[in-house]
Amino acid sequence: MLKISNLTKSYDNGFTALKNIDLEVKSGEIFALLGPNGAGKTTLISIICGLVNPTSGSVKVGGFDILSDYRKARSLIGLVPQEISLKPFLTVINSVKFTRGLFGKKPDLKLMEDILRKLSLWDKRDDRTMTLSGGMKRRLLIAKALYHEPRILFLDEPTAGVDVELRKDMWNLVAQLKADGVTIILTTHYIEEAEAIADRVGIIRDGELLMVEDKATLVERLGKRQLTVQLIEPLTQMPDYLQGLDLVLDAATGDLIYTYEADGKRTGIANLFSTLSENGIIIGDVQSSQSSLEDIMIDMLGDNV
Amino acid sequence: MNYQAVKSIYVSEMMRAIRTITQSLISPVLSTSLYFVVFGTAIGSRMDAIDGVEYGLFIVPGLIMLSVLAQSISNASFGIYFPKFTGSIYEIHTAPISAIEILIGYVGAAASKSMFIGIVTLITANLFVPLHIEHPIAMFSFLILTCVGFSLFGFIIGLWAKNFEQLSLIPLLVITPLVFLGGSFYSISMLPPFWQNVSFFNPVVYLVSGFRWSFFGVGDMPISTSLIAIAIFIGICAAIITWTFRTGYKIKE
Questions:
Q1: Which residues of B touch A50 (CB under 8 A)?
Q2: Is B252 close to A99, i.e. CB distance below 8 A?
Q3: What are the residue ranges of CATH 3.30.70 in chain A?
Q4: Given an 8 Å threshold on Cβ–Cβ distance, is B88 in contact with A85?
Q5: pTM
Q6: Which helix (H) or strand (E) holds A164?
Q7: Which of B9, B87, B94 comes nearest A50 by C-beta?
Q8: Which of A59, A104, A53 is nearest to B246 (CA)?
Q9: CB contact, 8 Å: B90 with chain A?
Q10: Is residue B182 part of a domain?
Q11: Cross-chain CB nearest to A103 (options B9, B95, B98)
């Protein structure tokens, strides 16, 4: 659905926002682009959607080049921008009609009602956009992008600064769109968002796509697991026979916390348990947890996250 | 051709005009009336006829040009600048629509609105002086060409403007002097030779002259010269816009 080859964007002042980006996104996939501020996420989306001219490289949407075949390419694309950018005097209905018209389509009142209802905008349909709350404006941006029935939807920081309810609605909507076969590309700061809804994740920093991975593989490949061992009689200090193992004693609870690689091979758990058993320490409970995308991001990007 | 997109832009722009219909109408009607009271009646009654045309009548084409030029520029420049200002221009850039379609939508709407204002000014003038239009088809053609030409010019201002100050600066600093020195209230032949020569560099002189010819059959210069001048003006504006869209200058990063 989307094929980006060797895409570079440099500005006159010498700043290079994107460096040789190569990326393919399959039809019906949800792809999350993660990265710190100024990493190039919005620039990448802006080039694909036609807002920024690329310096070199090519982008194809649905097999159509975004420059030479821009009409066909853009007719497949819907964009929900990061900034709230609406004409203040238009009513909600006229605003969504305007966008659909730009895409060469006549109004479809049933579809419009359906979209506005899904986004809780139907009751506000005759209100001017400037009277809407921030959250409602963001919903309207989504409605505008959906009403021309795109096959690939770009969500640029869709849930930045929105309330929990809207975020949940948005995630549900994304799931529905995916079920309808719509490809979705989102940029986000919220790592849990990518974790919750994405199929694949790309990590971008300083204009370079550092890695693209299935979300599960990424978590599995890079993630660490932690095993919390609760003891019937909590320890007050680490005994000598446990020194040398990758263990930390939780001073507050007296639990042992064991960290190991999540690749499933030679975890050392059996060794830990037998050592504990040999020394007469009785285990009350064990809990294991896997590192989140956030932990992985922090590992990769350091303090920039 | 994405006709639906052109229609969307045109309708949306015309709706904006309808929302502000009162101020759109009051301003030209009031200013035309004031010009007639001051120039037509108070001063005009003491002036001789120019080229055989009574002074009150003589100023009508210039007055219409005055409001049409100002309206074309302000409508077209605001029409494209406002979406830039609010950021909603992203919709235009991401839509499957060509530069020419964008232009037809915005400039077409701006020109339609100023055409309407021009006709309102004409009707207002008719309340003060008995108008007889010698070449009505030529008059309307001139009006349309002027509306389109200066809407294109306004569109360029709107594309290039970085803020509201710049948006109002060019009409104020360039257009107002050009219009007042363009023979709206006098014949170029009344000026000293030096200023007559300077006036030939003012495109508005050709417009007013041609427009006046369509009313009374007399003008400062031949009608063909006026037509060539406005054709050149439209050509230059179209070339600048084409270049702007092609390079993305001031439009895209």
A1: 93-94
A2: no
A3: 223-304
A4: yes
A5: 0.82
A6: helix A164-179
A7: B94
A8: A53
A9: yes
A10: yes
A11: B95
Nearest by CB to B86, which of A87, A97, A100? Answer: A87
> A302 in the Ramachandran plot: left (φ > 0), alpha (ψ -120 to 50) or beta?
left
CATH of domain A223-304: 3.30.70
- Rounded to whole angstroms, how far apart are CA atoms A107 and A101? 7
Largest CA distance in chain A: 78
Q: Is A198 helix (H, G, I), strand (E, B) or coil?
A: coil
Query: Which of B127, B133, B111, B113 lies closest to B61, judged by CA?
Result: B133
pLDDT above 90 coverage of chain A, percent: 48
Question: Which amino acid, B74?
Answer: S
Helix-strand-coil percent breakdown of chain A, rounded to 5? 35, 30, 35
- Which tens digit of pLDDT belongs to each residue from A66-106? 999 999 999 999 999 988 889 999 999 999 999 999 999 99
Contact A242, A275 (CB under 8 A): yes
Which three-class secondary structure state does DSSP give residue A237? coil
B149 touching A, CB under 8 A? no
B159 inside domain = yes
Residues of A in contact with B17 (CB under 8 A): none
Taking the Cβ of residue B134 and every Cβ of chain A, the question of whether any pair is shorter than 8 Å is answered with: no
Residue B229 sits in which domain range? 3-247
The alpha-carbon gap from A140 to the nearest alpha carbon of chain B, in Å, equals 12
* Gap between the Cα atoms of B228 and B233, Å rounded: 9
Q: What is the pLDDT of residues B175-215, one digit of tens each?
A: 878 888 888 888 888 888 998 888 888 888 998 999 999 99
pLDDT digits (tens, 9 = 90+) for B126-161: 888 888 899 999 999 999 999 999 999 999 999 988
Could you read off the pLDDT of A23-50 as tens digits, one per residue?
A: 999 999 999 998 888 889 999 999 999 9
At which residue do the structure tokens 């229609």 appear?
Answer: B7
The first and second tokens of residue A233, run together, are 């009689």
Q: Is B132 within a domain? A: yes
Amino acid at A74: R
Give pLDDT, residue A305: 47
Instruction: Tally the domains of chain B.
Output: 1
**Residues of B with CB below 8 A from A52's CB?**
252-253
Q: Is B63 exposed, middle or buried (0-12, 13-18, 19+ CB in 10 A)?
A: buried
Residue segments in chain A with a per-residue pLDDT below the cut of 50? 304-305
- Cβ contacts of B11 within 8 Å, gap of 6 or more: A101
Determine the Cα–Cα distance for residues B146 and B150; give it in Å rounded to an integer: 6
Architecture of the domain whose range is A2-219: 3-Layer(aba) Sandwich (3.40)
Which residues in chain A have Cβ-Cβ distances shorter than 8 Å to B90? 49, 51, 79, 81, 85
CA–CA dist A291, A203 (Å, integer): 17
Query: B187 at the A interface (CB within 8 A)?
Result: no
CB contact under 8 A, A101 and B94: no
Residue of B nearest to A13 (CA): B253
Residue B253 is assigned to a structural domain of this protein: no
Which ranges in chain A are annotated with CATH 3.40.50.300? 2-219
Identify the closest residue of chain B to A95 by CA–CA distance: B12
Calculate how close chain A gets to B17, using CA atoms only, in Å.
12
